[in-house]
Amino acid sequence: MFLNHLPIILSIVLLMGAQVNFFFNSVFDKSAKKHNRFLYFIIFGLLDYLYLVIPVSPIISLILPLLFVFSIAHSYTVDYKTKFTFSILYCVLMSLANFSSLYIFYALDSVDFNFAPVNEQDQIANTKALLLGCMIMFAIIQIVRLVTKRRSFSLHSRYYVLFLVIPIVSFYQLSILTYKDVYSFITVVGFLLLNVTIVYIFDNIIDKFQFMHENAQLQHQMDYQDANYEKVVHSFKSIKRIIHDTNQQFLYIEECIKRNELVAAIEHIKTTLNKVEGAYHRVNTGNLVIDALVTNTLNIGQANGIRIDTKLNLCSQEVQIDRYDLCVVIGNMLDNAIEASKKLKIAEDRYILIKIHSTESTLLIHILNHMENEAAYLHSQKPNPEFHGIGLTNIARICDKYGGHMTIETKNKVFNNMVLLPF
User: Fold this and answer.
1) Per-residue pLDDT reduced to its tens digit, 186-212
2) Are 406 and 419 in contact (CB under 8 A)?
3) 401 Cβ partners below 8 Å, 6+ apart?
4) What is the DSSP letter of 75?
5) CA-CA distance, 308 to 366, in Å (whole number)?
6) CA–CA gap between residue 59 and residue 69 (Å, rounded)
7) Beta sheet of 405-411, edge-to-edge order
8) Distances from the Cα of 2 to the Cαs of 11, 22, 128, 421, in angstroms?
């Protein structure tokens, strides 16, 4: 129990609230804040006030600080493992700071602290020690700010458990030390440095795993784009083969005409046209990327019982968008539509509408498909989804590159994905 004076208690509560907020802004970043945080601060203030003015058992005195610190951590949009881990870390650092303040007062003024104060002098001494501990904690948080890069990548639970070993051991050691011993003070300083160092190590581990994860995603995305390029190359080779074969047929037709065998010439022309119709692209806008990817989608749809309608209208065969970027956008949009359609159990619901329209200045791509659920799950449902979850992200990135935008609408189990790209 600290000095039972309402203005002083409220001042300590406000000071600790500002400090906890400052700490979590340092480790989580301000951008992770939830919009309405007032309720969390009310909960923090009430629990902190109870902790300061009401005598509690030793067990509750350990749990209560963690609860009101966690209430502030809960006002950030990060995963629970990270919230819990850094809440424990804050409590340990604050305990070490308070221990340091006790030793400083004892060394300077020979003040003997009573943790169950029975008179006003004890309350005043404990209140001063708490305020000094808060000041020391602000300095510690500044150091933490320097060693953290505010990563948002989430590790496996075992890494969080390993990370908590040092704070838990620190807290245990703190419980058996005495603030009157200079060697205990040196030990506390060492634990402070160790806990800050573990934050730095943990942050670098997150950095490394995030880099590895992004590399794996990019590699798989590159493999996906290579497959799209293979489709384009295959289409180009097919066109060359058809042109070469057609030239040979023209030589035969020319010979028939020279010999005045018109019936044979007409029959061969019909046969040649049928062959070309069967071998040539099912989509012929003149743009190789669009023709190859949409044709490939039609083939996949036919093989999987998916009805596909196309409405393609290009102002010009030349679309002023980099072919690689166009492959990323159209390839991912069509791939997502096929993926969702394959999951539908009712054959009549397996339907995709592909609309691609261009003007002199813009390209509009609109893909409509039916979904299995009312709500759309925007993360991939493929095997190894961690390698496919950046498809929509890549589309959005390319939209930003060209100053365009992507719109997603879901209604009545229908998914609409629309992309507008200015030239």
Assistant:
1) 888 888 888 888 878 877 787 788 788
2) yes
3) 325
4) T
5) 13
6) 16
7) 307-313, 351-358, 362-370, 414-422, 405-411
8) 12, 24, 9, 64
* 387: DSSP letter: G
* 58 φ/ψ angles, rounded to the nearest 5 degrees: -55, -40
Residue 419 — very low, low, confident or very high, per pLDDT cuts 50/70/90? very high
| Mean pLDDT over each residue of the chain, to the nearest integer | 78
- Residue closest to 306 by CA, chosen among 355, 279, 345, 357: 345
User: What contacts 187, CB < 8 A, 6 or more positions away?
Assistant: 173, 177
CA dihedral 304, 305, 311, 313 (to 10 degrees): 30
For residues 241 and 281, is the Cβ–Cβ distance under 8 A?
A: no
Kindly list the domain boundaries of the chain, sorted by start residue. 6-204, 283-422
User: CA angle, corner 95, sides to 92 and 99, nearest 5?
Assistant: 140
- The structure tokens listed for 274 are 């049928």
Amino acid identity for residue 235 in this structure:
S
CATH code of the region 283-422:
3.30.565.10
Q: Which of 301, 334, 303 is nearest to 419 (CA)?
A: 334
Distance CA 388, CA 384 (A): 7
Among residues 93, 61, 87, the alpha carbon closest in space to that of 74 is found at 87
Largest CA distance in the chain: 126
- Least confident stretch, 91-100, 203-212, 218-227: 218-227
- One DSSP character per residue, 199-264 reads HHHHHHHHHHHHHHHHHHHHHHHHHHHHHHHHHHHHHHHHHHHHHHHHHHHHHHHHHHHHTT-HHH
Q: Helix or strand or coil: residue 352?
A: strand
Of 396, 400, 394, 407, the C-alpha closest to 422 is 400
Q: Which residue has the tokens 């409405």?
A: 311
> Which residues are CB-contacts of 293 (< 8 A; sequence separation ≥ 6)?
228, 231, 232, 327, 330, 331, 334
Identify the three-state secondary structure at position 322.
Answer: coil
Q: Is this model's pTM higher than 0.70 or not?
A: no
* CB 123 within 8 Å of CB 1: yes
Q: Supply the DSSP symbol for 349.
A: G
Closest to 344 (Cα-Cα) out of 377, 305, 390, 388: 305
Cα 85 to chain centroid, rounded: 20
Mean pLDDT of 134-150: 79
